[in-house]
Amino acid sequence: xxxxxxxxxxxxxxxxxxxxxxxxxxxxxxxxxxxxxxxxxxxxxxxxxxxxxxxxxxxxxxxxxxxxxxxxxxxxxxxxxxxxxxxxxxxxxxxxxxxxxxxxxxxxxxxxxxxxxxxxxxxxxxxxxxxxxxxxxxxxxxxxxxxxxxxxxxxxxxxxxxxxxxxxxxxxxxxxxxxxxxxxxxxxxxxxxxxxxxxxxxxxxxxxxxxxxxxxxxxxxxxxxxxxxxxxxxxxxxxxxxxxxxxxxxxxxxxxxxxxxxxxxxxxxxxxxxxxxx
Length: 278
Hints:
Number of domains: 1
Strand content: 5-15%
Distance between the termini: 32 Å
CATH class: Alpha Beta
Oligomer: single chain
Order of helices and strands: EEEHEHEHEHEHEHHEHHEH
Radius of gyration: 18 Å
Helix content: 40-55%
Number of strands: 10
Number of helices: 10
């Protein structure tokens, strides 16, 4: 089960986390949902398409991204969070700032998604205080602006696994009720690193926590398919995510919920059919 404050989502089927970027500069949809009315409409659309939960972020963490001041991130995020929570779906907040996280959790956010992997102990302390699960993601340094300069690994899977294991254990010791692990595809990682992590994802799954995978529209998909426009990388994203499910992933963080939901319906039907029924 994925425990989300006053509710729980079963993990016996893949969960779709719909991405809602409240930023002017995200790599694939920056600027589309800056206005609260447009953001709320997008949230409703994601849920209608079949999202199990939403992930709201108000600071781009793409490679090379400039940091956003705390007050600006709050200005973008909090009004939309307040508008989206009454829709009734669980809401994750994607932030690396304790000041932003505290306000979001106070308003009722259900999950804390920290791309820096809870390096700042205040983030884990907040998740523990509010009784919410936290996503622990790997990036080599806690700075998106410089992370690609640190894309150097002797064994990327072993190093990512060790980081996630250590951060998860620390978070649980601090009282965080549950952790979700995210290998951090594209965060300080080159194509070869991303492919290695995907091919050996079961080694992350073996740590025993729910695993979240987010390859939606990312550069890796473009490099493999030759598709330059991120918004046109839907098919490649679905293919990568289905492979991640084969390797044991539990949650897919996606832009294109409808395409993924349709793929999962076929996927589920095929897995549920016994060989003798064909």
